[in-house]
Amino acid sequence: MSSQQVAAYALEAGRKLFAQECRFVIGVAKAAQLPEPVRPEIGFAGRSNVGKSSLLNALTGRNSLARVSGTPGATRQLNFFDLGGRAYLVDLPGYGFARAGKHDIAEWNALIRAYLRGRANLRRLCLLIDARRGIGDPDRAIMALLDEAAQSYQLVLTKSDKLPAPAMAEVIAALEAEIAGHGACHPEVIATSAETGAGIPELRAALAAVVFA
Ligand SMILES: Nc1nc2c(ncn2[C@@H]2O[C@H](COP(=O)(O)OP(=O)(O)OP(=O)(O)O)[C@@H](O)[C@H]2O)c(=O)[nH]1
Ligand SMILES: [Mg+2]
User: Fold this and answer.
1) Does residue 49's CB lie within 6 angstroms of at least one atom of ligand 1?
2) Which among 109, 113, 114, 127 has a CA at the least distance from the CA of 42?
3) Distance from the CA of 5 to the CA of which of 28, 87, 93, 101 falls in 20 to 30 A?
């Protein structure tokens, strides 16, 4: 097969996987409530308001699978979605939410950390970065935790529609330079827009490869 055929095959596998029925399974607020690790899981993490819920909706072609909000901190638990009985998609609560109380922040952090460090069936964690903001210290803290836990992850840029193409290319180059030293990080950065659908087929393809590996 030519490399073009391989790419076309991967895109089709991604399209098929994400065209399947996707339904909400459970929202988890405490580590003890985590579902049995019976399926491959793909997680979506990132700062509050980065666009995690929007990206999940774009991937699954649903408008309101995951709750999108103008108020940062809308997603307060780990939300599990069953994708065609093949995989769980996991929408994580955003970190770095300034208006949350200290107690809430500590509780969310403990839950996210427990999940990210010890989930054997978490095949890949998509770490979302707002294209306009770039990578920040809260993201670096999560990357350090993932490297330490040898948890496979990949950087996914969101809101690419907010930047012109040349600026996007610069952001991607900067991220690729930064991730070079991170052992558990996938080398490819995928730029997406939940608004225009840019990069969504490519991300579906990358995640299908991980689910079916
Ligand atoms: N222009 C643009 N806006 C987006 C995109 N993705 C998300 N947004 C907007 O960004 C805001 C936050 O989106 P959410 O999907 O709720 O973000 P989240 O990361 O799930 O937020 P929390 O659950 O609060 O952590 C909403 O106003 C979205 O409409 C995108 O690709 N382009
Ligand atoms: Mg959300």
Assistant:
1) yes
2) 127
3) 87
* Dist. CA 70 → ligand 1 center (Å): 7
Atom of ligand 1 nearest to the CA of 160: 31
Q: Which atom of ligand 1 is nearest to the CA of 76?
A: 23
163 lines ligand 1 (CB under 6 A): no
Over the stretch 134-191, which tens digit does the pLDDT of each residue have? 999 989 989 999 999 999 999 999 999 999 999 999 999 999 999 998 999 999 999 9
For ligand 1, atom 17, the nearest C-alpha belongs to 51
Q: How far is the CA of 70 from the centre of ligand 2 (A)?
A: 10
Residue 105 has pLDDT above 70, yes or no: no
Residue 77 contacts residue 160 (beta carbons within 8 Å):
no
Regarding the beta carbon of 154 and ligand 1, being less than 6 Å apart is answered no
Number of H helices, E strands in the chain: 6, 7
19 token code pair? 């065209």
Residue 83 CB-density burial (10 A; 0-12 exposed, 13-18 middle, 19+ buried): buried
Instruction: Give the Cα separation of 12 and 160 in Å (integer).
Output: 23
How far, in Å, CA of 26 to CA of 34, rounded?
9
Which tens digit of pLDDT belongs to each residue from 33-49?
A: 999 999 999 999 999 89
Give dist(CA 112, CA 125) in Å, integer: 12
What is this structure's pTM? Answer: 0.93
